[in-house]
Amino acid sequence: MSEIRFDGRVAIITGSGRGLGRSHALLLASRGAKVVVNDLGGSLDGSGEGNTPADEVVNEIKAAGGEAVADYNGVHTPEGAQGIIDTAVKAFGKVDIVVNNAGILRDTTFIKMTDEQWDGVLSTHLLGSYYVTKAAWPIMKENKYGRIIFTTSAAGLYGNFGQTNYSTAKLGLVGLMNSLKIEGIKSNIMVNVICPAATSRMTESIMPKEMLNLMTPETVSPMVALFAAEDYKETGNIVIAAAGHFAKAQIVESKGIYLDPTAPITIEAIQEKLPDIMNMEGAVTFQNAMEGVGKCLKRG
Ligand code: NAI
Fold first, then answer.
1. What are 128-141's pLDDT values in tens digits?
2. Whose CA is nearest to atom 17 of ligand 1?
């Protein structure tokens, strides 16, 4: 197999001053991409911005012979997001790849969740990914080329105690991908979602050391890079990547049941058929909402 390269491509990786983003940035740069290393610094909960881990990653890339520029904007405002795109255009003339990776955590149970904790997490993960992608989109449409990656989480796909804000934001990104993939396909813009698990400051206090030793960010980044590759023509996929495990996740529907819609449908009739409704054997997925709704009208 020929080596996958990114020569001539410009990649923005948000939140790439450390953790997964840093690893994505180093890998793409090592394969020839010109990289914008965006990171506003700050602590895990998003407070205290100002140190510049982005500079360290840029130095690492340059020391290895790659090309990179640092950007210190926050993704969580439209102005910050536009600033990131401007950095890319000023330094390298365009944007080909956006890896929406920046993130924070403000975990607490739902009963204790403050609006500030809720808003902060949604602003960074969901709105931040929207703002950055929105600012890059016209350039990608114009160039008829784009690779966009969103970063979800098992907490979003399946839920996690104490993470209602994070789960909401992370599954929202799947919704964003689902419609954006349809709008992007004609312009050769592929939109996919990575669902990683990796050692970082986000996970170091909650997972056993033996697990963390296997879950390096470097085991995740090759999948992100594949999503970012020119030859990768798939769109609308969610891929799990952790510790060498790779798998596709998707939303599916059971075969379900069909009751006569022209006759009254009772609560009890549904209750009686509940096992059939919930039976996931032969479950199916759909390419878009119309296909999904179409299944409701298909009989037998
Ligand atoms: P991390 O905390 O090591 O890195 C996140 C980076 O984003 C930090 O350097 C931080 O300064 C930056 N950042 C935060 N807010 C920002 C903003 N508004 N603008 C720009 N940069 C900002 O965390 P990690 O683990 O590398 O996470 C990366 C992404 O992967 C996040 O979206 C996270 O939710 C996601 N993820 C991580 C998992 C893991 O196991 N580490 C599991 C599932 C998802």
1. 999 999 999 999 99
2. 74
Is the beta carbon of 41 within 6 A of some atom in ligand 1? Answer: yes
In this structure, what CATH number is given to the domain that contains residue 207?
3.40.50.720
Question: Is residue 257 in a domain?
Answer: yes
- pLDDT, one tens digit per residue, over 268-299 is 999 999 999 999 999 999 999 999 999 998 87
Looking at the fold, whether 30 and 90 belong to one and the same domain comes out as: yes
100 lines ligand 1 (CB under 6 A): no
Give, in order, the Cα–Cα distances in Å from 92 to each of 67, 71, 83, 191.
Answer: 10, 13, 14, 22
Q: Is 90 left (phi over 0), alpha (psi -120 to 50) or beta?
A: alpha
Q: Both 39 and 140 in a single domain?
A: yes
The total number of structural domains that make up the chain: 2
